[in-house]
Amino acid sequence: MILSNKNTSGMIFRGLVIIILLQFSNLYAQNRKDITLEDIWQKGTFRPEYSEGFNWMKDDHYFTRLDYTSGETPELVKYDVINATPVETLLKNSDLTYKGNPIAIEDYSFSPDEKRILISENVQHIYRRSKKGTYYIYDIISKKITLLSEGALSNVSFSPDSRMAAFTRDNNLFYVDLSTMKETAITNDGVFNKIINGSTDWVYEEEFEFTKAYFWSPDSRKIAYYRFDESQVKEYNMQLWKGLYPQDYRFKYPKAGEKNSEVSVKIYNVASAGLKDVDLGKEADIYIPRMKWSEDNRLAVFKMNRYQNELNILLVSDNATDIKTIYTEKNNTYIEINDDLNFLKDRKHFIISSERDGFRHLYKYDLAGKQVAQITKGNWELSKFLGIDESKGLVYFTSAEVSPLERYLYCIDLDGKNKKRLSGEKGTHEVEMSSDFHYYLDNFSDANTPTTTSLLEASGKKVKTLTSNEVLKNRISEYKISKVEFFQFNTPDKISLNGWMIKPAGFDVSKKYPVMLTVYGGPGSQSVTDEWEGMNYFWYQMLAQKGYIVVSIDNRGTGGRGADFKKITQNQLGKFETQDMINTAVYLSGLPYIDKSRIGIFGWSFGGYMASLAITVGADYFKADIAV
């Protein structure tokens, strides 16, 4: 073929441009900085920007958040939603003093009438969710700060009428009349490692994921609370390493099949100080994983058997004498517990979620226990039930309908019609609706992009971006960063598993690379999602800098893919998960750029259990493991 001089010149020019661009690209890659452990965990090099202390106000045209612009101590600022601009400073630094001493505000909440603010400081964590600290009441009108009560308090909350505040301390339950600051002890028999009132034992905190175990009735006249008798539960001994010598710590810790706490439910009348027991039946070896008051001041009590495959919801009358069952669910495996029970204002119906058809979906029931409608349906998981705009008959939720790796916001009619997707960008949307459902806060990210926080109208129209993390995004570009890549593969038993991979910068397919497989893998969890990993992202990137390929897999037993995929591990934890880790190692070994003799595995908590199984049961496939 004969080329004209013009064509030849053009090809030569384009070739030179490509060579120059490649040289610049290589030079740029070489000039990018290495990530250090100090960058990740000590210096705050990659610390993100976020909206700290965000709260919707009762009039959801306003919100509040903690603002650090005036110094190291935050101020509480009220913002107008429409413009996302400050309109008033509700708590100034000069206001945050008690008896001449400054208060280092750590968190806050409004009373329902928004005339008082509950402020916490010196908060200390006890276990995973439990904590205790110092609490103050700030009167917005008088600008006066008052100590709620002496000592370290837990589980503090306002009454619905804003006149009182309740809390737990030393295993007992109290309330304070905020007009007089008179304190009343509801219980006095609480004893460490024996009796707990108004807060949970270790099992409920860890497995049912709550610690505040008392609940104001909507009319503020009663408080329903849990009482745990753990006197027959066996103790576990642990050393706490503080200082030169360890401290001996003994606490009630029932292992599988051992005796649990005996739990009872009581209803306290604030005006009369009267106390009534809720009749839970003769069976004592049960769980009460949730309680919630209805719109007409009746108490809904979730009652489960020890095996956790049968759930009954009891509706208890105002005087605790009339009890009826309004919901029953049975399953061959365990029933997942959540906070989705929502009583409608018509006082005739409630909404609840269930996995009864194989995927978590929303259902509408009447108070006679009859199913009225299945609101959501399909071979996809509802991720988070966000609430109901009853004035418009709309239900809001996020789901994994598009992909188990992604989350998007939807709304749907109460009768299950007219489902509409509201969020757009591909990735993960974590959403918080305002109280009147006019607006929502959207924390959006993907696996390679830090979180952007935006305010949007309920229709999905953006009002304003609150935080974009542009500084962090620009800083990331200065470092040797490789993209997170998603992939799937099929195991020998035809199970499709989702994974992600980070390759070293300057990856060369002709070379052989060692692998660090990071795993959690516990029931219902997910590690493989299209969302920002936070500091772990940089830890994985640092390993990739060192020449490792970093991989994560969601094994059978994890969430986002329905009940069958998640609950296959029932009664045999570790079996299928370990098979999937071994199958992952086999799959990776078949890739041309993997050094199959150098595959390691790392995990903590359930992931530590997984790593330990992999290096023993799967010793032929894994070179090393780190189990935390």
- Would you tell me the structural class of the helices and strands? mainly beta
Number of helices: 8
Share of helical residues: 10-25%
The portion of residues forming beta strands comes to: 35-45%
Number of separate strands: 44
- Give the distance, in angstroms, between the N- and C-terminal Cα atoms: 66 Å
Largest sheet: 6 strands, mixed
- What would you call the shape? globular
Q: Please, could you describe this protein's structure?
A:
The protein is mostly beta strands and 628 residues long. The protein is globular, with a radius of gyration of 28 Å. The chain contains eight helices and 44 strands. A six-stranded mixed β-sheet has the order 39-40-42-41-43-44, sandwiched between helices. Strands 15, 16, 17, 20 and 21 form a five-stranded antiparallel β-sheet that branches.
Brief sketch in words of this structure:
The chain is 14% helix and 39% strand. The chain is mainly beta. The protein has a 6-stranded mixed β-sheet with strand order 39-40-42-41-43-44, with helices on both faces. Strands 15, 16, 17, 20 and 21 form a 5-stranded antiparallel β-sheet that branches. Strands 22, 23, 24, 25 and 26 form a 5-stranded antiparallel β-sheet that branches.
